[in-house]
Structure formats: C-alpha cells, structure tokens
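Tutorial, part two.
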Amino acid sequence: MSRIGKKPINVPSEAKITIDGRIITVRGPKGTLSLEVHPLAIVERDREQLIVRRAEDTRLGRSIHGLCRTLINNMVIGVTKGFTRELLLTGVGYKIEEKDNKLVFHLGYSHPIEFPLPEGIKARVERQKQISLILEGYDKELLGLTASKIRSLRPLEPYKGKGISYADERVIRKAGKAAAQ
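Running the prediction step on this input gives:
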C-alpha cells in the first residue's frame, strides 16, 4: 500500500468539494480548481475527509494512487491557504518593475523583457539587500510553471552568481581561471 496514497485528505470547513463522476471540483475563498481523476483511482467522501483508493493493484495503479491523492490535497490546500514561491534577483543593474498585470525585467539584455502574469498568480517585489520576487497563487502547478519561466529568463550562472534563482536553491559556485605564474 502506498504510504502517501493511504493517508486521508482532511477537508477544512471553508473548502467545498463536489465529486461528479471522475471530475473533482474544489471551491474555497482563494478560487476554484478542478481535476479529472485517472480511471485507476477511486475517490470517496467520508464526512470531512476524502479517501483515494485503487481500482486495481498493478504497478501503474499503485503510482496513480499516490499521485491522485497528492494532486487533490494540493487543490484543497491551494484554495484555502494558497502557495508562495520566492525568486531572488542577483546582479548589478538587474531590476524588476510591476506594471498592471505584467512584470518588466531589466536583466542586462539590450531590451527590457515584459512577462505577463497568468490568471490567478499575483506578484510583489521586495527590495532589501537583494531584490526578491514573491509569487502567490492557489494553483501549485501553475505557480511552479510561472516561477520556472521567470527563472529561465536569466538562469543563475555559476562563476559570478548573477541571474535569477529560487530562494531555497543551493548555488554551487565554480572557481574561475587561475592566474598564470
């Protein structure tokens, strides 16, 4: 039995869950998410909990069991509490501006890069020692995808450490060329 799949999903009082065949819809104060569950997973409601079971005990059925439980749990957490992801901007002259529903990046290229934020994602820029961009949203998959696209605008380079990185990312720096003697 999957250790993750056999855990029940606790549903808070502010989340409203609708099960319509294989489609599960979760509504909460932050937004609404829906998911079509794989045919090898069965979702049942037991008062304030959701239980995910396997339709058959095959290798694919076992892997889908834990995956479906995690996806549904992320939906419940997202619509009630939400998720955040923090990116750090390192480099001389690098900056971020907020305009309407867009972010404008100045990353050392000959032109500024405009990045439109997807529906459901909010961003705020904090300037302390380092510029940090905090992304907030209720859809964990969309939040991670947005953070990944922003990071790909100027990935962190290992020699000077300039670029965009996740706040919890461990950067392995490389030594440059040694001076000739």
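The chain has a mean pLDDT of 90. In part three we will examine how such features are distributed along the chain.
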